[in-house]
Every structure is written in structure tokens, then in C-alpha cells.
Amino acid sequence: MISEERINTFINSLDKGNAPYLDELERIALSDEVPIIRKDTQSLIKFLLTLTHPKKILEVGCATGFSALLMAEYSDEDTKITTIEKFEKRIPVAKDNFNKYDKTGKITLLEGDAINILAGLSESYDFIFMDAAKGQYLNFLPDCKRLLRQGGLLLSDNVLQDGDVMESRFAVTRRNRTIHERMREYLYTIKHDPELESVVINVGDGMAISVRK
Ligand code: SAH
Ligand code: MG
């Protein structure tokens, strides 16, 4: 939460919640410190899916599968989701969760580094959710743009890093400085790219929504 914690608590209190198995997966992920999407981010994703009815979704950063299952639950029956994860410890957990809860086989998990996997993809996607290593968003962007159809949405998570991104680089710890600089560059790039129209919003940990012109 970036600011105005009470406003956020109020907004979240209005939420009607998710399917019970998603609540359970969310609880487990949070207790295992898996950095899953926050409540207000979930709400935004559900809204965008309902508004745009994407048939093909690509997710960069699957973790244990929570957001992929949320998108599977709240998208059209014939929607397909491809999600990428490289962390060996999380892959079997995601697979297990998909076996249990992705009853209609909407989700395909691609294992490996997104930088290589994205390069090998060639189909076009209606909706891309970028939620992997923040320092790498800039490297993922050219392939994501290539894979995004005209009029498609690119949703980027964690772009404000709890407000750190707006601070001077000197206020950020050395460890976070590279990510800080890269995220600023990413935001500048998507805001100035002539092929994208982007809005940065203070939802969750900061999000950017870009549409491919
Ligand atoms: N979208 C998930 C959370 C993803 S957390 C949810 O909300 O449920 C980010 C994930 O991205 C981590 O599990 C991390 O291992 C993965 N990741 C980071 N860099 C990656 C890369 N280069 N390729 C593939 N996965 C990556
Ligand atoms: Mg995230």
C-alpha cells in the first residue's frame, strides 16, 4: 500500500471476495511470503477481464499460480492462459495448484527464464500481465510489445514499489537503486513509446496499464 492506508482498507472492505479455493491459495501464498497480487490489484484485473474479454492471456511471473488461477476463474470459458516461471521451488507448487483447480485446462505453464521463453513465442495475445523481476521489465518489453495485438492490454505490476520509485535515487538503498533506476526508465519508456498509450495508477504496489495502438 503506497499511501492512504485507510482509503485502501475501505476500498478493500467493499470487495465481495473470490472463490473459496482462491482465498485459501492466497492465504497459503501470503504465509509462505510469495509476493502475489494484492486485493485491489485482483479487483482491477477482474474488472479489465470483464471489460475486454481477452481470449489469449500471457503472464510473466507465475509464482505458485494464484494470479493465473484468478484470471482463469474470472475470464471467459474459452480463454487460454500461458504463464511463465523460472524458480524451481515454485514450479511444482504451481503445477499442483493447476492440477487441482484448473479443471478445464485453461492454463499452460512454461518453465524457464522469461527472457528466453518470450523470444520463442510467436502467437499474439490480447492481454499480457507483467509480474516478474522488476529490474527486467525493460528487457521483457520489446517481446511483450511484439506479442501484444493491436488494441491489446499490457498490465504491469509493482511499478511504484511502495512509493520508492518517486523518491530521489539517493533516498533508496544501494541494493534497490538499480531496480529503482530501471523501473523509472521502464515507466518513462512506456509513457513515451509512440506505439503505446499508458496510464500509471496507484493501485496495489503501483500498476501501469498500456494499450497497443
Ligand atoms: N503473478 C504471481 C506472483 C508473481 S511473483 C501472483 O500474483 O500470483 C514474481 C515471480 O516471477 C516469482 O515467482 C519469480 O520467480 C518469477 N520471475 C522473476 N524473474 C523471472 C524471469 N526472468 N523468468 C521467469 N520468471 C521470473
Ligand atoms: Mg506483483
Q: What CATH architecture would you give?
A: 3-Layer(aba) Sandwich
Bound chemical compounds: S-adenosyl-L-homocysteine, magnesium ion
Major beta-sheet overview:
7 strands, mixed
Q: Widest sheet: strand order?
A: 3-2-1-4-5-7-6
The total number of structural domains is: 1
Q: Tell me the name of the CATH class.
A: Alpha Beta
Query: What fraction of the residues are assigned to beta strands by DSSP?
Result: 15-25%
Task: Determine the fraction of residues in helical runs and give it as a percent range.
Answer: 40-55%
Radius of gyration: 16 Å
Q: And the CATH topology?
A: Rossmann fold
Average of per-residue pLDDT values: 94
Task: Characterize the structure shown.
- With 213 residues, the chain is an alpha/beta fold.
- It has a single domain, classed as Rossmann fold (3-Layer(aba) Sandwich), CATH 3.40.50.
- The chain contains eight helices and seven strands, in the order αααβαβαβαβαβαββ.
- A seven-stranded mixed β-sheet has the order 3-2-1-4-5-7-6, sandwiched between helices.
- The mean pLDDT is 94.
- The structure holds S-adenosyl-L-homocysteine (SAH) and magnesium ion (MG).
- The site of magnesium ion has 5 residues, from loops.
- Magnesium ion binds next to loops.
Summary of the model, kept short:
Helix content is 43%, strand content 21%. With 213 residues, the chain is an alpha/beta fold. The structure holds S-adenosyl-L-homocysteine (SAH) and magnesium ion.
